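agent> fetching stored inputs for the fe (ii) ion docking request
agent> found them:
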Amino acid sequence: MSSINYSEKIPNNVNLVNDRTLQRALEHWQPRFLQWWQEMGPSDFQAADVYLRTAISVDARGWAHYGVTKMPDYRWGIFLADAQPERKIGFGDQMGQPAWQQVPGEYRSTLRRLIVTQGDTEPASVEQQRLLGHTCPSLYDLRNLFQINVEEGRHLWAMVYLLHAYFGRDGREEAEELLARHSGDTDKPRILTTFNEPISDWLSLFCFTYFTDRDGKYQLKSLAESAFDPLSRTCRFMLTEEAHHMFVGETGLGRVVKRTLEVMKEIGSDDSAKVRAAGAIDLPTLQKYLSFWCSSSLDLFGSEISSNSAANFANGLKGRPDETQYEDHVLREKTMALVTPEGEQQVPMLNALNEVMRESYLKDCEIGLKRWNRQIERAGFPFRLTLPSSRFRRTIGTWAGQPVDPQGNLVGKEVYEKSLPGWIPSESDRAFVHSLMQRVIEPGKMAAWIAPPERGINNLPVEYEYVKLH
Ligand SMILES: [Fe+2]
Ligand SMILES: [Fe+2]
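agent> prediction call returned; pasting tokens
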């Protein structure tokens, strides 16, 4: 079954052509991946010609190679960022020792679990988004969706490469399982809850790429610090692609705000019913979508107090995003004040690292909101978009199941139940948003609920036919 021309079909910088063991593992896995792509990838668009970016090498010119291709022919490659010579462990109890080029036996199962958990999210998001192509607001947006989908596919390849190359037989079994679990499947769901939420409209897609892909950025950044050097290098390269996914979220939501403000000015009203009647998404509905996806994504950071995160840090497996910006990289002496439903607690800093990450994540999320709120302010409307408190609607950690309002106050069970449909999208909000999802495929045309982007892809005009449907 040696049908794969390695340098052509699987662009890579891991010397695949000379690695027989890895070739055998991938030869077995690749047809299954392609079958998964056909069955679970973008529905009904496999024959479309799509203007896509492909990574063919890690240097600046090679990682963004543009061309027209059918998605099943996409060249899913395996890339590690360039090695830093003599790289040392940058945090934890083994700080200053040489980074690991192989997996130390004592951390094998934990590292495998970290890689599998990250790897599981990649195909999960493709599955969540598989029907969205049918309701695209423009060809430009359709292309961006497909770009994200093929790159999440490549991120799966990146994690499978690590499993195949460094974890032997159990790594190969985990790689199979990554194709066997499916988003939303009752018997074999994806590992993390957020990746089982259906994404059935484009407003949800933009929220997902703004909030959930940004969690991805933070996870990849913390794994990029890992003492296990191949994992670090893989994640550093994945981050270059992740940036585009968040760009789609940030500009997508910005274009929704822009269009809504245009409509509000046209009709001279901020009344939700009137804005909706004019075909735009009213700002309170947008706020509910933001609150839903932000709170759902906050759970992905795990419990506020976590012995796993402490061990992962102390052992050098997973650092903090941008570890070098901190002064103390060992954290054996530090504590952090955490507010729990029982009151304030001093927690060893090592055990509070999930919360440290969650806080810096929320700061990053604020940037887009500030921009959109400036747009709203300039348009002369008093409404302001906000992020929900990190205690709101949590299902993991000390605030799990607590009746907390979006501002973070405990409100009592009854008030909570009654108010929730006003805080996150209700059935009728979702039905309204769905009613707007009509597909627009004339080059350069946009659906009425979203403004056009400021520019096209790779210096091409917005009117370019980014996807040729057959
Ligand atoms: Fe990804
Ligand atoms: Fe992503």
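agent> quick read of the result: The first helix runs from residue 6 to 9.
agent> awaiting further instructions
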